[in-house]
Design brief:
Blueprint (H helix, E strand, L loop, with lengths): L16 E3 L3 E2 L19 E7 L5 H18 L7 E3 L7 E9 L2 E10 L4 E4 L4 E3 L6 E3 L2 H13 L11 H4 L3 H17 L16 H15 L11 H5 L5 E5 L2 E2 L14 H8 L4 H6 L27 E5 L5 E2 L2 H6 L10 E2 L1 E16 L13 H10 L10 E12 L5 E5 L3 E3 L7 H9 L9 H5 L3 H5 L15 H18 L2 E13 L38 H16 L9 E3 L6 H12 L34 E11 L2 E4 L3 E7 L19 H16 L3 H5 L14 E16 L2 E17 L6 H10 L4 E3 L20 H5 L28 E5 L5 E6 L3 E4 L8 H12 L8 H6 L14 E2 L3 H38 L1 E3 L4 E3 L20
Parallel strand pairs: 1-4, 19-30, 20-26
Antiparallel strand pairs: 2-7, 3-5, 5-6, 6-9, 7-8, 10-28, 11-19, 12-15, 12-18, 13-14, 15-16, 16-17, 19-21, 21-22, 23-24, 23-29, 24-25, 25-27, 25-28, 31-32
Helix pairs in contact: 1-2, 4-5, 14-23
Length: about 950
């Protein structure tokens, strides 16, 4: 197939060798249904145009197919072979699809309408092959054309094409390429008079390959290799360090890298003053009698993110007979496809003027647009305008697995993590007889879920064929598998270099011996007398010896370890802490991605006065990234993300540079005190059962942890004796505290003391087998202890940490975001700790709020909706998280690979289940066949079919 008709012209060779088909397997023409050009109301076309033999595409097919037939039959000069005509009743078509002025062109060869075939030279015989099918490429038709030329009886068991063998085209093409290579190498050299040994032709090799396939079955699926990263790092890395200070620049308002405009627009849509005002008071409060109103104008979704699009009406209802076929229970509210996954193509603001409700006045401050209309159309008596202008974000979404686009308003779209497909629906699909489903990409692409779900719409495919419920289930299963595959991929975007001053990277280890006082080396001997003030009385040999001793002592200093490390576990040895620090922050000698990125040496030069500090304005370089694709979501630098662990899993008792989790606020304590009094009286057991037994559990310990990502960078970590790159994210950590929680005076006073520590390593979050390094340092001798160390080079006071231009998003109702690190510090974590984006007020979404309110009002527990509460941080991120593991180079590769992988997986799944069912039927037939009557006839019991079991849902990976 091809996207367009603008291919290079193809000419018939000079003195062609014409090849004619003497037989055909197509008794009558088999044209496609849509052969009339019709332009629909959207200016699009979808029809098949028949091409004659002299069309450019026809000549290309005839030349290349003729060349393959000539190679198979051993015709001299195969490059001159050309098909004189198609087989009888075959037709060549160009599929025009898309916009009328610029349609897409796909080439098809239609034939094989069976069940009869015509043999022009002999007689008419019976054709027992498979039903008619179109050939979509030259390589698909080549084995079928060779079979037509070689088999006079047209025995379909001798045909090796993909439609007669149900094999993958890539396997068939590889056999054809092998045959071509043998035919080329066996061609005799002119003038030598030697004939090459006879070799098998294409037809024989194809038959041999088919027989091997039927004997051995398809290739076994490649088993997934265990990921070494998971085996070596069962725990993840996390640490706290001082915020890296950028190198001073001329203007603090000018960035040294190009900020992605798309990133700025996406971040300001959520982290700005206007965005916070639009968020309303959310999230949904279960104590309220009705859900909070939807405020609108929330651009949560970003270009190329995977989201859920709500289908019109009730969606695509699954009839009860389908569940019966799958031997599954049927639930009317769960056997329905009401959401379809898709990719965001674009987002635009749409305005709509609506009349006000009767006996109501419009408040001019409702929306900005309402104010503008009021200022222009307001009458002299000060009355408000008669119409209200409402604005909504409208997203253009490309539905997955099908060739369809849809424009939907913001209230009809949900984040990918905010919706779960009912498990009973996926169980029904996986347990259906696989003969009813078809995962062919072209067939699935013709399905249109909007037309299927929308009442009154024509339930027809693009080709004009009627859409069935099995078409819907096949397309939906493929779309679900694509999203599952894409969710396992991640990628980095927009790399730039960050120049900074390392945190004490130029200071020697505290355990290292002090640098000895270096004598000043006199200038070289010359006729010029030494300068006044220069060192006198030292010979050149003495100066060289002194410099050698100083260099030897300096070489003992370990400049490749992290300094000022504080430990969380008192029993941890300094070596263990140092190994954990290197695992989290990388090898200090690299300070980035390569050895050139470490800072300049700080050892004073021999000619410099003791105590002077070298000037260092260049700093170190670190490779950073502006964003990443994290499964279905797009995450930018400065984004506010949820972390996997709960607040109680991160320094639950506090640690240096990490505050203790906040306790309950005043209002929560008042409820607790009242509950305690009720407990003493032995009343209201229903209320007491909903409260924890420990007061602190009502605080932040059971909620999620957040990070504002200030940097995405790579570190070098030593594994298996090699330096390997691993990604890290750094930024301020936040917890979700009660809105009336008050800080303890002791915690605020300790901030100053904790600020002296460089970073903290939480060993509970570190790998169980950290990288081994040599962190030992030599101890100073007694003479060195007695000698006071010389003054080391000093540095200017730290610069203030760069502040982000974006605000902290609005927290959930009755909560606040509380930083848990001291100012000027940041946490460094592995990317595997990121659960996903934070969606302010997501539980106020109209598709979530009403069902959530009704479910809680009916008595369901809050525990049943952990996945929704997690999106707002009321539960830890691991309750609803994206955990991608496979890296891809860009977003396009992520989607394309997910599409190909999903199609291959479902096709293999379908073929495997069909084989299992056929084998089960064969076994049941053998067991139930018994001779009946004297004629030796055999019959099958009617009840034997009930003994066959359908595959279970666990065999299909579509969740």
């Amino acid at each position: 197939m091809s996207r367009g008709r603008n291919q290079a012209p193809v000419a018939i060779p000079d003195n062609p060798v014409w090849i004619t088909f003497e037989r055909s397997d197509c008794a009558v023409p088999n044209p496609p249904p849509n052969t009339v050009r019709i332009v629909d109301e959207d200016g699009c076309i979808n029809w098949m145009k028949q091409l004659d033999l002299n069309d450019n595409h026809s000549i290309k097919w005839r030349v290349q197919v003729g060349h393959q037939i000539a190679l198979d039959k051993g015709i001299p000069n195969p490059e001159r072979a050309v098909l004189k005509d198609w087989p009888a009743n075959y037709r060549f078509y160009d599929h025009h699809k898309g916009i009328e002025n610029n349609p897409r062109h796909d080439i098809y060869l239609y034939g094989r309408s069976g069940p009869l075939f015509v043999d022009i030279s002999v007689t008419v015989s019976v054709y027992t092959g498979p039903p008619g099918k179109r050939f979509r490429s030259i390589m698909e038709f080549v084995p079928h054309a060779i079979w037509l030329m070689r088999d006079p009886q047209l025995d379909v068991s001798n045909c090796a094409c993909k439609y007669c063998t149900k094999r993958a085209q890539r396997d068939i093409s590889s056999v054809i390429f092998q045959a071509n290579a043998q035919a080329t190498s066996s061609t005799p050299t002119p003038g030598k008079g030697s004939a090459s040994a006879p070799v098998k032709g294409t037809y024989e090799l194809l038959l041999q390959s088919r027989n091997a396939y039927e004997k051995n079955g398809p290739r076994p699926r490649r088993e997934a290799q265990p990921k070494k990263a998971r085996e070596q790092a069962q725990r993840v890395y996390a640490a706290v360090q001082k915020v890296l200070r950028p190198v001073p620049k001329a203007s603090p308002n000018v960035l040294r890298y190009a900020l992605h405009s798309e990133a700025d627009n996406d971040l300001r849509a959520v982290y700005s003053t206007a965005a916070n005002k639009r968020q309303g008071v959310g999230p949904f409060d279960p104590e309220d009698s009705v859900p909070k109103p939807y405020s609108g104008l929330k651009r949560w979704y970003r270009t190329a993110e995977i989201v859920w699009c709500r289908l019109p009406g009730r969606g695509i209802a699954i009839p009860q007979e389908v569940a019966t076929q799958a031997r599954s229970q049927w639930f009317e509210d769960q056997h329905v496809i009401d959401f379809w996954p898709g990719i965001v193509e674009s987002a635009d603001v749409k305005s709509k003027a609506v009349p006000p409700k009767p006996s109501s006045t419009i408040n001019g401050s409702t929306t900005t647009n309402a104010q503008d209309v009021g200022s222009n159309d307001q009458s002299s008596n000060g009355q408000a305008p008669a119409w209200e202008v409402k604005q909504r974000w409208v997203y253009r979404i490309r539905l997955l697995a099908v060739d369809a686009f849809v424009d939907v308003e913001e209230q009809e779209v949900l984040p990918y993590l905010a919706h779960n497909v009912p498990r009973i629906l996926m169980t029904t699909i996986s347990q259906l007889p696989m003969q009813l489903l078809d995962f062919d990409r072209d067939r699935v692409a013709e399905f249109h879920p909007i037309n299927m779900a929308q009442p009154g719409k024509g339930k027809e495919k693009a080709t004009g064929e009627p859409q069935t419920i099995y078409d819907a289930l096949s397309a939906f299963a493929l779309a679900m598998q694509i999203t599952a595959s894409a969710s396992s991929f991640w990628s980095l975007t927009d790399m730039y270099e960050f120049r900074y001053i390392p945190n004490d990277a130029k200071s020697p280890s505290p355990k290292a011996p002090p640098l000895p006082t270096r004598p000043t080396i006199p200038p070289a001997l010359s006729a010029t007398p030494p300068r006044p003030g220069a060192s006198q009385g030292m010979s050149l040999g003495s100066a060289i010896e002194a410099a050698g001793r100083a260099n030897a002592e300096a070489a003992k200093v370990d400049y490749y370890t992290h300094h000022d490390i504080s430990r969380v576990t008192p029993s941890a040895t300094p070596k263990d802490v140092q190994q954990a620090a290197i695992g989290a922050l990388g090898t200090p000698g690299y300070l980035g991605l390569s050895p050139r990125r470490h800072g300049p040496s700080v050892v004073p030069s021999a000619s410099a006065p003791v105590g002077s500090k070298p000037a260092s304005t260049e700093g170190a370089l670190q490779t950073r990234f502006q964003g990443l694709w994290w499964g279905p979501e797009r995450i930018w630098q400065h984004d506010f993300v949820r972390l996997q662990m709960s607040r109680g899993a991160l320094a639950p008792n506090g640690a240096p540079n990490v505050l203790k989790p906040s306790g309950p606020g005043k209002s929560t304590r008042a409820i607790w005190d009242e509950a305690e009094s009720l407990r003493e009286k032995g009343s209201d057991e229903a209320i007491l059962r909903q409260l924890p037994k420990i007061l602190d559990e009502l605080g932040a310990v059971t909620r999620g942890t957040f990070m504002r990502i200030d940097a995405l960078f790579a570190v070098d970590v030593q594994k298996d004796g090699k330096m390997k790159k691993e990604m890290r994210a750094s930024g301020m950590l936040y917890e979700l505290a009660d809105h009336d929680f008050e800080e303890d005076d002791g915690a605020s006073k300790s901030k100053g003391k904790e600020a002296e520590q460089r970073f903290v390593v939480n060993e509970s979050l570190l790998p169980s087998t950290p990288t081994k390094i040599n962190a030992t340092a030599s101890q100073p001798s007694a003479s060195q202890k007695a000698t006071p160390p010389p003054p080391l080079p000093t540095r200017k006071p730290p610069q203030p940490a760069p502040s982000t231009p974006y605000l902290v998003p609005q927290p959930p109702h009755k909560y606040k975001f509380r930083p848990i690190l001291p100012p000027g510090y940041e946490a460094v974590i592995s990317l595997s700790l990121i659960a996903g984006r934070y969606y302010p007020s997501i539980c106020c979404h109209p598709l979530i709020a009403k069902s959530l309110h009704d479910s809680l009002a009916s008595g369901r527990s809050r525990e049943d909706f952990k996945n929704l509460w997690s999106l707002e941080g009321l539960y830890p991120g691991h309750e609803n998280a994206s955990s991608p593991e496979i890296y891809k180079k860009n977003r396009t590769a992520m989607i394309e690979d997910a599409d190909n992988l999903a199609t291959e997986q479902l096709t293999d799944f379908r073929e495997g289940k069909i084989r299992e069912r056929e084998e089960a039927i064969a076994r049941a037939t053998v067991l139930t066949m018994q001779p009946r009557g004297s004629g030796g006839d055999v019959e099958m019991d009617e009840d034997s079919a009930d003994e066959l079991n359908y595959p279970s849902a666990g065999d299909m990976d579509v969740d």
